[in-house]
From TrEMBL:
Record-linked Gene3D superfamilies: Zn peptidases (3.40.630.10), Zn-dependent exopeptidases (3.40.50.10590)
Gene: NPEPL1
Keyword field: Aminopeptidase, Hydrolase, Protease
Protein name: Aminopeptidase like 1
Classification via CDD domains: Peptidase_M17
Superkingdom, natural source: Eukaryota
Keyword Protease: yes
Domain Cytosol aminopeptidase: 292-299
Recorded GO MF terms: manganese ion binding; metalloaminopeptidase activity
GO cellular component: cytoplasm
Record bears the keyword tRNA-binding: no
Amino acid sequence: MELWQAALGTLNPNPTDSCPLYLNYATVAALPCRVSRHNSPSAAHFITRLVRTCLPPGVHRCIVMVCEQPEVFASACALARAFPLFTHRSGASRRSEKKTVTVEFFLVGQDNGPVEVSTLQCLANATEGVRLAARIVDTPCNEMNTDTFLEEISKIGEELGIVPTIIRDEELKTRGFGGIYGVGKAALHPPALAVLSHTPDGATQTIAWVGKGIVYDTGGLSIKGKTTMPGMKRDCGGAAAVLGAFRAAIKQGFKDNLHAVFCLAENSVGPNATRPDDIHLLYSGKTVEINNTDAEGRLVLADGVSYACKDLGADIILDMATLTGAQGIATGKYHAAVLTNSAEWEAACVKAGRKCGDLVHPLVYCPELHFSEFTSAVADMKNSVADRDNSPSSCAGLFIASHIGFDWPGVWVHLDIAAPVHAVSVPSSPARAAPTLWLWSCQRSSSETFCVCDLASSPLSPSGLILPGNREAAVCYPSLASLSSAGGCGSSVSPIPTLRSSLG
């Protein structure tokens, strides 16, 4: 207990702080005492960073997350991000023993009673979706090409009992998908439009999620430079996020019609590549003069949202994309940009981002002032703006919206995740772990103080602990699994039925 109190006394989170314990067998880390109104109350981004830097090495590790009930979901997703699935480090393949990380939640404050098993299942589904998306984003294009991405979609479809619809290569051209076909026609692996459709009985509305799946972006003939091209394996982040979210939503029993639309292509250079000055006919029936082949994401998404509107009859269309470098300037590395024709949905996206830790901030929606940037003398529009100083991220999103029409009565939401897709996706450690999520419920005693037994008795050491800043609770632990047998700790502990979900 003296060791624990000494560690607590050294912590001064500004915004975070940590202290090693017991010859580095454990670490206690503190989150900010408070966050600003545009941050998540969970301080989720700090959690991911702390785990990567503070978690001691070892084959079996334990994280105890002390938080209030509303912060559990965001905290679980943040922890999952700290353990990416993809690695080609040679040492990882030689390990004989699989790494595991046990995550335990210690709930304090209000609503700290037992949590329902359905909530645990939600956490498992969400974190599995996060790690699925991260694995696809982290995998380089020599492995994650359009063929491989279609295999990933088919695997999820098989798991959910859904047969994907796939339109590919020359069929795209024949059926009028000039955006997807034009972007991907020069690549070795042909472009594709793929759709997973969930249509339950009793659905009252139809929602479509459309993801940009550029598996690699050279920029095409408007080629990127040597410093801006590395990292373009992440340009499929929108489609990867849609796939992970779709799997999680369906496994949670989504009750309305939900379609996941994947616009897959590799923006490559070759004899058949699209040239600046070429004109493409898109699925919307509108023509586009190409003045920048590196503005390709909006072309594939224009086909995707038009298909969602015309063929799927969507009432709500959300597209997600690593669309513009300007997004990072407009809303920063940690806040995705949201552009929508609905003030209600704009507010809902911001609120959801604060709850789940995937932060969102609005862009200006004003087509009457911005869409003129795409004026063409020979086609319905160009694909890149005339003035890069005039809200380019908003303009890029408006290009997509124009292919369903600014007078369309449904809800359209565009999320630009260009910067957030990699702000927390690159691990600082090569360790590959397969976390198992545990959620325990512990109710406060009248003393408002918790003490768990000696660190040396922990079967799971080395371990790590994260505490919210300035809490009234003190927790000394080896693992909450031993709480129920820790005599004299003054706490009332009731482990709920445990859901164990291997994420490796």
